[in-house]
Design brief:
The protein is low in regular secondary structure and 387 residues long. Helices cover 8% and strands 6% of the residues. The chain folds into 2 domains: 204 residues, E3 ubiquitin-protein ligase SopA (Pectate Lyase C-like, 3 Solenoid), CATH 2.160.20; 157 residues, Pectate Lyase C-like (3 Solenoid), CATH 2.160.20. It contains 2 helices and 6 strands.
Length: 387
């Protein structure tokens, strides 16, 4: 298909949409349209399964009722685009801009295409099949969905890690088992939304927007093993009383920070750096502290009930490194801390000041003792490695 044939096809489709003579429904399945500027393009009710729209400029585009099963919009600008009732199963919106987009009643459930070859402008017309299989979740990780209308959308199992959903409308949206770790949820609407099994922090929406943005970039950094986003760097910050409950904070740097009275309950804190931090009265209940650095931290009166400590393998942008790191509490002060139901056997406790009297619910066990040194050195605070 030549560029002129593409233009003619779009014009014929516009006539089809308007029910005019000479109109014909556009069939661009598996076409490669990447990088094109197609502002205000009308592809309502078009056949677009598996189409490559990567890095396209599609501001104001009309995709209502279209079949976009397995399409790729990575990095595309879809500001004010309309996806009302579109089939978006298995679609990739990674890093796309969807500000003010309309996605009401759209279907973003998992799906994948058996056939993935793309035809490019210049190819001859030929028949392409698009057998649809349940599989890959819709990927909206890092997408800008500010003020987007997702009311009643079907987004079960969707990947929304690090997505910006500030002021988005998610009323009645199906988000069961969706991954919303690190998503910005400031002023988001979730009336009657279904969130069974979804991964997100119930308190993140109340955090200052600046902190939500840091956590958004950090979630992308963790989720991509360091290839996207940016590590959260809170070293030396005054974050007393801040609620990070259920946070996705593995590998974050809180060294020397004032975290007095802060909450990290149920948070993922693998390989996080809390060295020399002030955690007096903080809640770390049921937090995952595997491989975390708490050396020299002040945990006086902190609640570590059922926290997980132990060994974790370090990963980088290429995957597992084979390096294992233990939770390090050397020289930490845990005076009056609650430590019931914590297994210290794989933690480093050299010089740690433990509670004199265990909590009433503490398991009958010998006093914590220093663990063997880890098999590899701990990553430096500015190391690019992630859990």
């Amino acid at each position: 298909m030549t560029p002129q044939e593409f233009v003619d096809l779009v014009r014929q489709h516009e006539r089809f949409v308007r029910r005019l003579d000479g109109g014909r429904r556009a069939d661009l399945r598996h076409s490669d349209l990447s990088g094109l500027s197609l502002q205000n393009l009308i592809l309502q009710d078009a056949k677009l399964a598996g189409t490559n729209f990567r890095q396209c400029r599609l501001i104001g585009a009309d995709f209502r009722y279209s079949d976009l099963f397995g399409a790729d919009f990575t990095g595309a600008d879809l500001t004010s685009a309309d996806f009302h009732r579109a089939d978006l199963r298995g679609v990739c919106f990674r890093g796309a801009t969807l500000r003010d987009a309309n996605m009401t009643d759209s279907d973003l459930r998992p799906g994948s295409l058996l056939f993935s070859q793309h035809r490019q402008l210049g190819d001859d017309f030929r028949r392409y099949t698009s057998e649809q299989l349940t599989g890959r979740p819709a990927d909206l990780s890092g997408a800008d969905l500010r003020r987007a209308n997702l009311r009643s959308a079907k987004m079960k199992e969707a990947n929304l890690v690090g997505a910006n959903l500030a002021r988005a409308n998610l009323d009645f949206t199906q988000l069961d088992r969706a991954n919303l770790r690190g998503a910005v949820l400031a002023e988001v609407r979730l009336t009657s939304a279904s969130l069974t099994g979804a991964h997100f922090s119930t308190t993140s929406a109340s955090l200052p927007i600046e902190i939500q943005e840091v956590l958004r970039n950090h979630a992308l950094w963790v989720d991509s093993n360091g290839s996207r986003g940016q590590r959260a760097a809170f070293a030396g910050y005054n974050l007393a009383g801040v609620d990070f409950s259920q946070g996705y904070l593995s590998g974050a740097d809180f060294s020397r920070a004032n975290l007095e009275g802060a909450s990290f309950a149920f948070a993922e804190l693998r390989l996080a750096n809390f060295s020399q931090a002030k955690l007096v009265g903080a809640s770390l209940r049921l937090a995952d502290l595997s491989g975390a650095n708490l050396a020299g931290a002040n945990l006086g009166g902190a609640n570590l009930t059922s926290a997980k400590v132990g060994v974790v393998e370090v990963k980088d942008t290429t995957g597992p490194t084979g390096r294992n790191v233990q939770t390090d509490l050397s020289n930490a002060d845990l005076t009056d801390a609650k430590i019931s139901h914590v297994d210290w056997r794989q933690a480093i406790l050299t010089g740690a000041r433990m509670p004199k009297v265990p909590d009433q619910d503490a398991e009958a066990a010998p006093s914590p003792r220093p663990a063997a040194a880890p098999s590899a050195a701990r990553p430096a605070p500015d190391s690019p490695t992630v859990p």
